Amino acid sequence: xxxxxxxxxxxxxxxxHDCYIAAMIKLxxxxxxxxxxxRHAEGRPGDYFRAAAARGLPAVxxxxxxxxxDGFDPEHRMTTDEFEVYEQWFREEQDRHxxxxxxGIEADWYPGCELxxxxxxxxxxxxxxxxxxxxxxxxxxxxxSIGQLWEREDVGQVWRQYFELIRQLTASGMYDIIGHIDLPxxxxxxxxxxxxxxIVLPVxxxxxxxxxxxxxxxxxFFHPVAEAYPSTQILCWARERNIPITFGSDxxxxxxxxxxxxxxxxxxxxxxxxxxxxxxxxxKTLCPLP
Length: 290
Ligand code: ZN
Ligand code: FE
Ligand code: FE
Ligand code: ZN
What we know:
- The chain is an alpha/beta fold and 290 residues long.
- It has helices spanning 45-55, 82-93, 114-123, 148-152, 155-172, 193-210, 232-240, 261-270, and strands spanning 60-65, 101-108, 128-132, 177-178, 213-217, 245-248, 275-280, 283-288.
- The chain has a domain at 104-252 and 259-288: Metal-dependent hydrolases (TIM Barrel, Alpha-Beta Barrel), CATH 3.20.20.140.
- It is 32% helix and 14% strand.
- Helix 7 links the parallel strand 5 and strand 6.
- The radius of gyration is 18 Å and the shape is globular.
- The two termini are 14 Å apart.
């Protein structure tokens, strides 16, 4: 019988949550949550940690949107000054819950971010860093089904540009996990099959070579596309290439922590996965799926 950590027993030592091999744990950790500091989410780290414990999750990570000192997309992120508040909120709560709570960030990748992002990420004490592309350029973003993005471009072209940014993000070596890797499908826009393979497969090869993980992000179930990120097809291709996975709800409300994780776990197993990654201080280990 595997042991479960007592409340408060989780420190900063590695390995951390081998606890979730415990038979009573039925779900993987939730490595993608937000806080009210990003201006489009609700709740503070403690609210998410309580929700995660109540949901029976083995671990949870706080991964709010990273600040951008260059003024990139200020409506959807904390300011650089608020990062201190973010870390303080996290530190106050991290040892007060019956599960390991990890300190992370969802950091954007966009042209021009390279220098400060490399320096800034390295200067923080993160357990894990998600790298995400939310914009093709400052105007074309993935939060709306209308707008310039889908009017001006053909679908294949949008996917091609997006996956080129994912390739660059991966090649930078600055991120541990790629967030919602097939986000352009959010409103149901998909390129034809032949083009799809040609766009996605070479980038999956780069990801495999870099040892970067991808996440099964369940927020897609609640978007118009109504399926997880990534699709089953991409997940199978990732499995063929031994690309490791994590799980994330991308919750912007505490009550959404661990949403649809039973389905995410089933998807992982159907694709042939037997393990997911666990993180501490940006070091990773493989852990059997529950
Ligand atoms: Zn968000
Ligand atoms: Fe995101
Ligand atoms: Fe997110
Ligand atoms: Zn996200």
